[in-house]
Amino acid sequence: MKIPQPYLLFLGDVSDPLAAKTARGIHAWRPETCVGEMSLADCEVSLDLPQLTPEEAAQQGAKTFVLGTANAGGYIPKHWMKAITDAITSGLNIASGLHQKLTDIPELVALAEEHQVSLFDVRHQQPELSVGSGVKRTGQRVLTVGTDCSVGKMYTSLALEAEMKKLNLDAQFRATGQTGILIAGEGIPVDAVISDFIAGAAEWVSPDNKADHWDVIEGQGSLFHPSYAGVSLGLLHGSQPDWLVMCHEMGRPHTRHLAHHPLVEVEECISLNLYSARVTNPNAQLAGISVNTSNYPEAEALAYLAALTEKFNVPATDSVRFGLQSIAEFLSKHSITKE
Amino acid sequence: MKIPQPYLLFLGDVSDPLAAKTARGIHAWRPETCVGEMSLADCEVSLDLPQLTPEEAAQQGAKTFVLGTANAGGYIPKHWMKAITDAITSGLNIASGLHQKLTDIPELVALAEEHQVSLFDVRHQQPELSVGSGVKRTGQRVLTVGTDCSVGKMYTSLALEAEMKKLNLDAQFRATGQTGILIAGEGIPVDAVISDFIAGAAEWVSPDNKADHWDVIEGQGSLFHPSYAGVSLGLLHGSQPDWLVMCHEMGRPHTRHLAHHPLVEVEECISLNLYSARVTNPNAQLAGISVNTSNYPEAEALAYLAALTEKFNVPATDSVRFGLQSIAEFLSKHSITKE
């Protein structure tokens, strides 16, 4: 299931930098996996990596050609096909986080078979899953949870992994969404599994491990989101986190895309997440609060974070503005260290 | 999407009465939809309906041949194929709740097309779904919830619908599992949808309705079940119930199939269900408790139910032993009546 790395990042012909957020995420968090980038004539976005053809990238050791930009409707445009087929004939695997499946395009399936490479549709692929068992697993786990969608759960997970590694903790990001999977090279998109298997998918993503190992699990959605709470609860139960990091956006007025639905209070959200986590791990506790404060001046942001720290007795920080060192140090203090 | 009724119930060649529980459920709750039964030579189970061939059943108005028994592994045995193909050539649609899809058997697909009939794989079929919106819908809703799987949520829903109809309430059972779907002729198996769409499926199952209409929605799983809680939460949010009926088995020692996981207390389970329901319907309340007391003598059962009634100030009853009239009357008192 693991996507072979390193990658050649394909940027297509996008003009909106936001559309390249998958490629940007891979480059930001795993620069060592990026041999180069490839874009079409009209592309206005660059990661300042070497521009390589698939053949050049393959010669430099690249193993997989990654479709690293989102596209309206999630379709693979016809004028991208030449780049993709060139990549296959150069011996590269193809990985895509788009809705449309590579494996639904017979021409690509046939060509991939001829050249003995694999097509990875990360939004759709998953191992054979079992339903969750709830049986306690070995190793330590921290899960990012949130008051809403798009409050920085993936970013916080990756930044926390990086800070924990700086403290010599054996930390490993565990991906549960397509961008995260392309960054990590493996994982399961939990919002795409059959609903009976959500908790089972979470158990698969974070298996038994050494006592001093940390899985930093990417959370999804929110227990208070009317559209996605089922995914969040199954992921929470299956992850069996020892520690939760609550993610939040300061001042967000209502649940994303649902103007009729006010955003839950941080305190209430922490309470329900801890309560629900204890169904499968009675020792679950809060390790910190990761807040996007970007809409506020620094002094207001700091005052808000100080109030949260005071109230919940854990570090509260902005993962971009102030970094996650404080939460990593909190976890380090509570970590099981190798004998 | 509606499965055409009435049915010819196919019992196959089962010897275990429990294996025929789908056929038995359809006959018990919708006798008017059952033209007859058909079984193979070695079948030891009967519903005491007229034994009919597909051709005879079609002549008597049957529209669909229902595979009404479960089978080890959920596969369609080879020796059932003649009965199924006979049904198709007699002009009957085929409906199945088995894991193996009718539509994965090319011979059946071709024959169905030739005879212009439909194949309904109720465990797999679903309309094009959207994610849940959380927007309040019109009409009244009651949802069965539970402390565990297999505590009588479908039975309670159907029995409550029947009791509410006796009180002249406009009540309608809404199915969320395969047996329920075969009984109702429509619905969505929520545990089989892609996890992003659980709440959206629940919204679809119980659409806007007249102010005095009642949907009685079949619940699934439990918020405290480590395997299935995500399904339960999405269904709870999407259903937007005005009223909950908590289902429970008296004396069950632990969560079904999970001996390491003690069963949640009724009080705790009611609290979390009401709390979570209020995310999408702030007026959600408890309407009653439906308990399977079959492992206890009547006096003990009555004392237990009386204590629950006293504690929660709603009717507590055993749906089989004592009936659900008390809960239906409670709902009737609180019902919006037609102008």
TrEMBL record, chains A, B:
Origin superkingdom: Bacteria
Domain D-glutamate N-acetyltransferase-like C-terminal residue range list: 132-327
Domain D-glutamate N-acetyltransferase-like N-terminal: 42-124
Pfam families, per database record: DUF1611, DUF1611_N
PANTHER family the record matches: DUF1611 DOMAIN-CONTAINING PROTEIN, GLL3100 PROTEIN
Protein name: N-acetyltransferase DgcN
Species: Psychromonas aquatilis
